[in-house]
Amino acid sequence: MSQAGREYRGRPEPDNAMAVAQSDIADHKSQLVRDLQSILPAESVLHRTEDLAPFECDGLSAYRQLPMIVVLPDTIDQVQAIMRLCSTAGVPVVARGAGTGLSGGALPLDNGVLLSLARFNRILDIDADNRCARLQPGVRNLAISEAAAAYGLYYAPDPSSQIACSIGGNVAENSGGVHCLKYGLTVHNLLELKVVTVDGNLLTIGNRALDAPGYDLLALMTGSEGMLGVIVEVTVKLLPSPESARVILAAFDDVERAGEAVAAIIGAGIIPAGLEMMDGPAIRAVEDFVHAGYPTDAAAILLCEVDGTEAEVAEHIDAVTAVVEREGATDVRVSRDDAERALFWSGRKAAFPAMGRIAPDYYCMDGTIPRRHLARVLKGIYALSEEYGQGVANVFHAGDGNLHPLILYDANNPGELERTEAYGGKILELCLEVGGTITGEHGVGVEKIGHMCLQFNDAERDQFHAIKAAFDPHGLLNPGKAVPTLNRCAEFGAMHVHNGELPHPELERL
Amino acid sequence: MTGTEDLISALRERVAAAHERSTPLAIRGGGTKAFLGHPVDGAFLDVSALTGIVDYQPGELVVTARAGTRLAELETVLAEQGQMLSFEPPHFGADATLGGTIATGLSGPRRPWGGAARDLVLGTRVINGRGELLHFGGDVMKNVAGYDVSRLMAGAYGTLGVLVSISLKVLPRPAAEATLVQQLDATTAITRMNELAGKPWPLSGAYWETGELYLRLSGAERAVDAARDAIGGDVDDDPDRWTRIRELQTPLTAGAEPLWRLSVPPAAPLADLPGDQALDWGGAQRWLVSDADPATVRDTAEKAGGHATLFRGDHDARFHPLPDAMRKLHQRVKQSLDPAGILNPGRLYPWLDSAR
C-alpha cells in the first residue's frame, strides 16, 4: 500500500490483490486482536470500525485512514509487550499522543496498530531542587507549567496548542512556540527520555545532569516523529518564572519597514521573549474576530514581549520603544498590566481560527527563512497570490524567521484546492531558495514528505534511512513518514482546513 | 573558494579510500584537545587548513564557519559585532578550532544559562565514513526537517563524521556584567547556587572552589545592578576569573594530577570521594582532583544521577561506561554513519566498532 500524499484523502479503495486477500487479512487481524488481548484488558484493544474512527486522523484532518487496531496501554510493561508482539508479527506501529500534530505524523496505517499513549497522563515527580519534572508522555504541555507554578518554575516551550498537546508529541515533533528565540525548542529543554525500542527493550536516554555519556541520542530522538522508538517517559527542565513580562505593540504602514524593525531590535542586543508579526490581511481578519484593538489600517504589526526582572524589563521596554519609533512605527503601545498583555496576544493567538471568517478554507504553511530575506519572500508570496488567484494572510514568528502564510480558498470551487496546493508548494520552494527550510516546527509527517526531496539529496536521505535502520531495522515504526524513499519523491502534500475548522477548533494556533 | 572545494574533495577522497581499504583515520584540527579521550591509531586526517567564516549575519544571530577556523579568530569577529558564543567554549590552547570544539562538545561556565555546544548547533556539513559530503540542519533557528544529525555530531569526537563546516546560533554580549564572591563551604554553596538558579536572577556563572563562591551576573545594566545589591557579597574585579575557570587554570584544576569531570544533577549532595572538588555550572559540573579508584568515582556519579569522565589522566576507559542495550544502539548508529569504522576508532569507546 502507498502511504504518501493524496492516497490518504478519503478511504483507500482496496485494489484487486487486496480484495483477493480479504479473508487472509481478516484472519490476521483477529489473531492479532486475540494476541493483544492476552497482553491488555479487552477494553484496551479497539478493533471495530466505530471504535477506530476517532483515531483516523490527527490535527491534519485532510488525511484520514482507519487503523487496523488501536491499543491503549496503561503501563510501560504493556508497551514493551505490544512492541515485542508487533515486532515478531511484522506489524507496523504508529504511536500517538494527543493527536494535535499538524503534519499527519500520527496518521494510522490500515495494516498497522495505533499505539495511543493517552492513558500515560500522570506527572510523576517535580524536583524543585534540581528544577526538573518527570512526566508520562501523555501529560499536556500546559499542565507541566501549571504544576510547576507552585515552585515558581515553568516549562518554557509553549506550542500554541499547549492546552491539549502532550509532552510526548512535543518531543516527537521538537515543538516550538512563541518563546523559542529566547528559551529554545523542546530539544533545548529536555533532560531524559525513556524509550521502548521496536523490539520491546526499554532504554534510558539522558539523565538529570546537563549531559550524558556517549552520543547525543537525546537530540536524535527529539523531532524524530515516532520513527526511532516509542517515548514512554520524559524528564524536562523547569525554569524560574520571570518576575515580569510586558508586550509592545508597534504598527507600520509598510511590511518591509516592520521587517527592518525586527532586525533593528535584535541588532540592539535584545533577545525578546517573543517577537511576532502579522500583515494587513491577518490584522483585519483577527480584529474583526477578537477585537484586540489592533490598528486595522496598518500594513503590519509587531508584537514584542520582553521578560525578566522588573529592572531588566523596564530597560528593554525603553530600548525597544526607541528602536521601533526610529524605524518608523506609526503607533506604539506598551501593555500596562497582564490583562492588557493578554489582550495584545489574543489577536495573534486567534489568527488561525479568524481565517474562517474570511474564507471557507485555508492552508497553513510552515517554512523558515533567514530573516533578512523577509521582504523578498513576502513580495514573492504576494506576487504568487496574484498569479494563482488565491488570497493570503501572513503570520510570522518574526524573531526566528518562521513563516505561517495562510492561503485562503474555497474547496467547493473546482480547481481552487489544486491551485492552493500548487501555490503552497511554490512558497516552500521560495523558502528553500533563500536558504530556509520547509518546516520550522510542524514536522514533515506525511504532509511535506514530497518537499523533503527538494531539501535533501539522495545521499542525505539515504543517510537518514540508515540511521532509522539502526533503531528499527525492519521499518515497523511509523513507516512512510518523515523521510521519503526514492520512488516516493514526487508527491506533494498539503494541509487543508475545511470551513475554517481544525480538528481542535478551540485551540489557539500560532 | 576553489581552494576550499579542492580541500574538501581531497578530504572526501581520502575518507572514501580509507573506507574502501578499512584503514583508520585520526582526524586532527589544532590538536588542543588531543588529551581528551583515547589516542587513535590511524593516519592523520588534517582539517586545520579548512578555515574561514563562510557567512556571518549578525542580524540573523547565525554564523557559519569551516571546521578548521580558529576559535579565537571566530570569537574576535563575533565580538566586533557585540556578539558571542553563549556556550563559552574552553579553548585549551591558541590553536583550538571550531571543529574540535563541536566534536568534543565542551561548554564553559555559562552553560546552564547560555546553553551547551550542541544547543547552539543549527546545521553542519560533514563527510560521513563513506566519503559523502552531507548537509544537515541549516542556518535558520527553527528546522525540523529530517533527523537532527547535526547535534548528534556534537560530542561524538569525530567518530560519526568529519566536520566540514558548522552553523551556530550566536547571541548578543550582555550589556553589563559583574562578579560577586561569597565565602562559603561546599555544601552551603550547592544550596546557595540552586536557590539562586531557581529564581529569575540574571545569573551567567556560579563556581565554587576552596571556600569561595563566585557568582557572575549578566544582562541589562539595571538588572545586574539590582541583582548585585540583592544577592550581596564582595565585588570580584579580576578580569580573567571566568577565563581561568573555563580553561581549567584555577589553583585546583590546573596541574597534572588525574582530573575527573562529574556531570550530576545540580543539587546533588557533595560526593563523598577522596581528593578535592570544585563546583561549576551551578553545581551540575564538578571537577575532582583525585587518585580515587575509577570504579568508585563512576559508581558515585551514577548514584547521584549523572556520570563521570576521566578528563585528564591515564586509564583505558576514560568515558563513563554504557549499559548493554545502549552499547548495541551506539554500535549500530556508528555503523550507519561509518560502516567501515575508520573515523577516529577508539577515541570515544574502544567497543564502538567491535560489532563489525
List keywords for this structure.
heterodimer; A: 510 residues; alpha+beta; seven-stranded antiparallel beta sheet; five-stranded antiparallel beta sheet; 17 helices; globular; disordered C terminus; B: 356 residues; Uridine Diphospho-n-acetylenolpyruvylglucosamine Reductase, domain 3; 2 domains; four-stranded antiparallel beta sheet; 29% helix; glycolate dehydrogenase activity (chain B); EC 1.1.99.14 (chain B); FAD (chain B)
Short description:
Chain B: Residues 1-173 form the FAD-binding PCMH-type domain. The complex is a heterodimer of chains A (510) and B (356). Chain A is α+β, with helices and mostly antiparallel strands.
Description:
The complex is a heterodimer of chains A (510) and B (356). With 510 residues, chain A is α+β, with helices and mostly antiparallel strands. Chain A contains 17 helices and 18 strands. Chain A has helices at 16-20, 22-37, 49-52, 76-89, 141-148, 167-173, 180-183, 217-221, 255-267, 280-290, 310-326, 338-349, 351-355, 374-388, 416-433, 452-455, 458-471; strands spanning 45-46, 69-71, 93-96, 113-116, 123-127, 132-135, 153-154, 190-196, 202-206, 230-237, 239-240, 244-252, 274-279, 300-308, 331-334, 361-364, 392-397, 402-409. In chain A, a hairpin with a 5-residue loop joins strand 8 and strand 9 (202-206). In chain A, helix 9 crosses helix 11 (310-326) and helix 14 runs antiparallel to helix 15 (416-433). With 356 residues, chain B is an alpha+beta fold. Chain B has two domains: 3-172 and 326-353, Uridine Diphospho-n-acetylenolpyruvylglucosamine Reductase, domain 3 (2-Layer Sandwich), CATH 3.30.465.10; 176-257 and 259-312. Helix content of chain B is 29%, strand content 25%. Chain B has eleven helices and 17 strands. Chain B has a five-stranded antiparallel β-sheet with strand order 3-4-8-6-7. Chain B has a four-stranded antiparallel β-sheet with strand order 11-12-10-13. A four-stranded antiparallel β-sheet of chain B has the order 15-16-14-17, covered by helices on one side. The longest helix of chain B has 20 residues, at 2-21. The two termini of chain B are 38 Å apart. The chains are: A alpha+beta (510), B alpha+beta (356). At the A-B interface, strand 9, helix 8, helix 9, helix 11 and helix 17 of A face strand 7, helix 6, strand 9, helix 8 and helix 11 of B.
